[in-house]
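Comment thread on ticket #2218

A.B. wrote:
> Attaching the input chain for the structure job we discussed in standup.
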Amino acid sequence: MYNPRSFHEIVMAGLPVLHNRKKKNIELFKRNFEDYTITIKPFSLIDHLDILYDWVNREYAKKFWGMHGSKKELYQHYDEFLESGRGYSLLFFIGKKPVAFVDYYQVQEDEVKKFYDFKESDFGIHLLMAPISGAPISELSKNVMITCLSFMFNLSVDRVIGEPDINNKPANELVKKVGFRFLKEIEMSYKKANLYYYNKADFIAEHRLQ
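C.D. wrote:
> Ran it. Output below, let me know if you need it in another format.
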């Protein structure tokens, strides 16, 4: 039987499970693109909370991410989420610059499982891009998503789902651009969403693993 914790154990790669330890120099995965390399690091409440607090309180993030508020509330939310084993959080970098944040979660531990024929090995993702600063980086959102999926599919994941708000046009356009397949519109407890999925075999055919 599939062990839903095995993916987390592989992600941690023998690292301390406690998310409140320093992880600033730990790299989990890299993917090279023509003009830059994207690196994934584990999110740490010690090293990275200030970064995330800034991002979630920006105007562009408030409507669809819904995590704006006090730093204490943000800490408590992620302390509970990361301790629960339901998922994990990742930061994406180009060089030393953080460019994106991702939560991945076990579908079988989330209400989204009610809306389709899920498998125990399915994972979902939520993506938050960093605020724009400096010169624009070509295809950044797309390549962050490709990097995240490469990382997950290189391990034990066979299918990833996404459920962006139906009114979040950029997010819906992004998942389709990367190659997610639309399944249907769903009504969750906190939003109306479009449900998408991406199988490992389809991703490899389109983007290859790296």
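A.B. wrote:
> Thanks. Noting for the ticket: The longest helix spans residues 140-154.
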